[in-house]
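Suppose a colleague, Dr. K., hands you the sequence of a protein chain of 328 amino acids and asks what its three-dimensional shape might be. Before reaching for any lab equipment, you can write down a predicted structure in token form. Begin with the sequence itself:
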Amino acid sequence: MSKKKKYEDLLKDKSLFKKNTASGLLSKDANYRITFEDKKYFQDDIPIAKINIKPQVRQKIDTDSESYRELVESIRRRGVLQPIIVVKSVENGEYELVSGERRVTAAKECRYEFIPAVIFEDLTESDILEIQLIENLQREDLTTFEKALGLKTLAEKMFKVDTIDELIKLLSNKLFSKNNNSTSTVEVDTNYSINLRQIYRYVLLFAFPEDCIELVKNSSKFPVRVFDILYKYKNHPEITNIFKLIAEGKLNSTNLNTFLNKLDSNINKEEPAKKKRIRIYNKLKKIDTNFDELLKDDLIVKDKNKAEEIIKQIEYKLNRLKEKLFSK
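The predicted structure, expressed as tokens, is then:
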């Protein structure tokens, strides 16, 4: 296996840059390749004060982390070795940062006025998003939520889908369909290849309720493997509590299945021992009528938490009923 090239070495590689146009930018991982035909670029030192930084994949930079402090010390001693990537504005001569926010922040801390940059003049918004996502997703300091959000955005761009349900269904078909012979790695427009299973595992997060997503967002390293395990429980009334236990470190991908088996056994105890064949229509019609009666009346809620809990249980049981009726 060949060693990965450093970014500064790639910039010197004549096979990547020819005739003052960018025929390709290769990120740190050679599995990801970004190509931009006929995009003009040049390299120069630019004023840090003229760089505009828009929100990227990373929610914030932890300036107290060990890796960031090491970066600051390295820049203080040796300067910025890896150029940032920017787009030059024709209107005001300023620069929009595409990649390298940590380096810019660290250089500011070291009181640098200029920083080396690869400067493009005509990247589209789509090109910029593509570079930012692929560059940032390889960072080790990204949280689980940041990586999941980045992969979701990248996958939506790759597969042109509008909803998380569409995306999960598409990925599931590509990965698990018996009639599908596609590989688990996808290459889009020869620009980059990425592991589908990795995308699938991370984007499952966004199928869960908002409370669960928020718990992951506020956790530095939430175990991503649990999303796959918990996916079929996403509508369970206890799902938020399960996420809380994982965020607190009381549950993990090792002991989660044991916990869920106990949860399932408790649900099964509530079901009758002998299953009877019943005509479902009349029973559903009766439930529907009861709901109609409820909606006609003026409702008084003394305990909103209890009412919300009961509604969650009803929703969960309705979903189980739908699966039982229509999944065959």
